[in-house]
Amino acid sequence: MLPTPDVAADYEKVYEPAEDSFLLLDCLEQEKDYINTHYSSSPLVVEIGTGSGIVTTFMHQSIVPNGLFITTDVNPHACLASKATSLKNGGTPYLDSIRSDLTTALRDNIVDILIFNPPYVPAEEVPGIPKSEDAYEWLDLALLGGSDGMVVTDRLLESLGTILSPNGVAYILFCARNKPQQVVENMEQKGWQCEHIMTRKAGWEVLSVYRFKLL
Amino acid sequence: MKFLTTNFVKCTSKACDSTTDNFPLQFNDCELIQEEQEFKPEFLLNILDRLDWSAVLKVAHDLGNDSLPQALPENVDPEDPDTLALLKDLHSLLLETNITQGEMKCRACEHVYYIKNSIPNFLLPPHLA
């Protein structure tokens, strides 16, 4: 088993790695061969909603040590934490964190490997961005995903074709209430190849990760 | 924010996607620091293919560096001393140069984004999002 990174984050402001984070790590470990055979030694890896940065750090520590890494988050504390977590584990030649909504600040079609552990919990609405940097509401942003928990993920899936490079892939995590089967059917109709990577029961939630690639 | 990142980011306003002026952003009033990184020529070579060189030149100019060649050499051979010197310069520029504070302006809509604590903030105010 590959080592789990040490995290450098204040869990009052940044999502603490939990079952969903660890499922993603296990999926990426399982995908190591696929990633190393399909991409150059320096793919551009972008993690949306990075939180503590544990997933990106795992990627540079154990999966693609020569990758280029960008993390994004709307939470400024998460942006700083993801860089700190990377450094705490030895760092990597290139990692930057940008404060943005999804990947809207990135040029089109440059991302080789996209990773997203979204706010997937069904809720009445997606919370707005807190006005104060000290607000504890930052944690709600990491969790609450509006109707079916899919409001944020749907926005990403709609623009996936303009985000990924021609050969790019996206790893996205879902809970059962997101109806991932239905998402997969919709995406397949739009010409995407969807691969189920892993499913795991976590408490009363059932979490799964899928890989999306344009055919 | 590392210099290399300036080659990946654009204005987030959807309206600017129809122009070509949303990239690269224009950098003003920037504070820079150099953060040492191990020089790995092969890693640099991997990055070169991805670069939009004209954008590198524009941002370097914004930051007061006009010493780069107008084009990258066609056959990059790391054994060649001139090429190695260029790779070292690029290593220092792309990976070691950090913008800690400053402004990034979209050349199309003229919206100004700020960099603080080395983190660029691309969130738009609600009326522009």
From TrEMBL, chain A:
Coiled coil: none annotated. Keywords: Methyltransferase, Nucleus, S-adenosyl-L-methionine, Transferase. InterPro entries: DNA_methylase_N6_adenine_CS, Euk-Arch_PrmC-MTase, PrmC-related, SAM-dependent_MTases_sf, Small_mtfrase_dom. Belongs to the eukaryotic/archaeal PrmC-related family. This is S-adenosyl-L-methionine-dependent methyltransferase. GO terms for cellular component: eRF1 methyltransferase complex; nucleus. It is found in: Nucleus. GO terms for molecular function: nucleic acid binding; protein methyltransferase activity; S-adenosylmethionine-dependent methyltransferase activity. It comes from the Eukaryota. One of its GO terms (biological process) is methylation. It comes from Cyberlindnera jadinii (strain ATCC 18201 / CBS 1600 / BCRC 20928 / JCM 3617 / NBRC 0987 / NRRL Y-1542). Residues 23-122 form the Methyltransferase small domain.
From TrEMBL, chain B:
It holds the Pfam family Trm112p. Its main location: cytoplasm. Gene3D superfamilies: 2.20.25.10. One of its GO terms (cellular component) is cytoplasm. It is found in: Cytoplasm; Nucleus. Keywords: Cytoplasm, Nucleus. InterPro entries: Trm112, Trm112-like. One of its GO terms (biological process) is tRNA methylation. One of its GO terms (molecular function) is protein heterodimerization activity. PANTHER family: MULTIFUNCTIONAL METHYLTRANSFERASE SUBUNIT TRM112-LIKE PROTEIN, UPF0315 PROTEIN-RELATED. Belongs to the TRM112 family. This is Multifunctional methyltransferase subunit trm112.
